[in-house]
Amino acid sequence: MGLNAEAINRTALLYEKVRHIIPPMEWPGFAEDIDAILDLKRRRNAVILAHNYQTPEIFNCVADVVGDSLALARKAMEVDADVIVLAGVHFMAETAKLLNPDRTVLIPDMRAGCSLADSITAADVRLLRARYPGVPVVTYVNTSAAVKAESDICCTSGNARAVVESLGVKRVIMLPDEYLAQNVARETEVEIIAWSGHCEVHERFTQADIRQVREDYPGVIVLAHPECPPDVVMAADFAGSTAAMSDYVTRNAPPRVLLLTECSMSDNVAIQHPKVNFVRPCNLCPHMKRITLGNIRTALETMQHEVTIDPDIAVRARRAVERMLEVR
Fold first, then answer.
1. Which of 98, 209, 216, 241 ranks highest by number of CB atoms within 10 Å?
2. Residues 40-83: pLDDT tens digits?
3. What is the DSSP string of 202-268?
């Protein structure tokens, strides 16, 4: 029996989890990497944290911890491992390193960036503080550690409103996602000063997309991520973080649903809910898709690429993230 056949046999139970998403002819191409990764995790005492936008073979077959940005941030502190591999984008790996300074944090591809993180710099935040003296800065976790270090507190799409209101002030600066800020502003009496950054995945969804889907699929339930434009969020049946969208499907089991977010999110939720019909259009995140089974395997074999953060930046950025985690 060849190596590939042995790997297929050893990973057969994992394939049962994803068989209605991944065709049988594709599985042999995944099985050898999955088998090797599982062995490397044991030998390295490593865990893999995977965001909801990772492909099904990563999310369901090699990840130890899965979830949205907030869940990964919380769970990163609880894992018992020497090595953390972040199957996501660079700012997520930085956040894991901030919360686990004594552990080795690896990202399989250094090019896995984020349009939101790239939309603002630490210098921009300092200029905003000078323009609005005394106004606290709430920073979305989709930012670099350097930007977090210039902030008072971080937030995710799942706890943004709670974070804003936890400060007990009348006005805040919220950055960098303009649409998230506008969607939160509609739900709170706190005045929000927004930045002009956008997510290249979510900004492309339109009301026309929703109208067309409702015409083609009468009765479809539309769930939108709050990084979508406000008119899209208002036209949807529900808006929330990726975790909130997944929870909605679990609670309500709608016969037919559309998730206005990254494509792999629907694949991963569909695996948990095979009786729900997931309508797609969706948009791919090119940065998330830089993470593959192959480069996760290489990361564990070579211990690259290690995430490091300047100590002064890390201290200040960690404070902003920890303040976020204290908000319930």
1. 98
2. 999 999 999 999 999 999 999 999 999 987 788 788 888 889 99
3. GGG--HHHHHHHHHHSTT-EEEE-TTS-HHHHHHSSEE--HHHHHHHHHHH--SEEEEESBHHHHHH
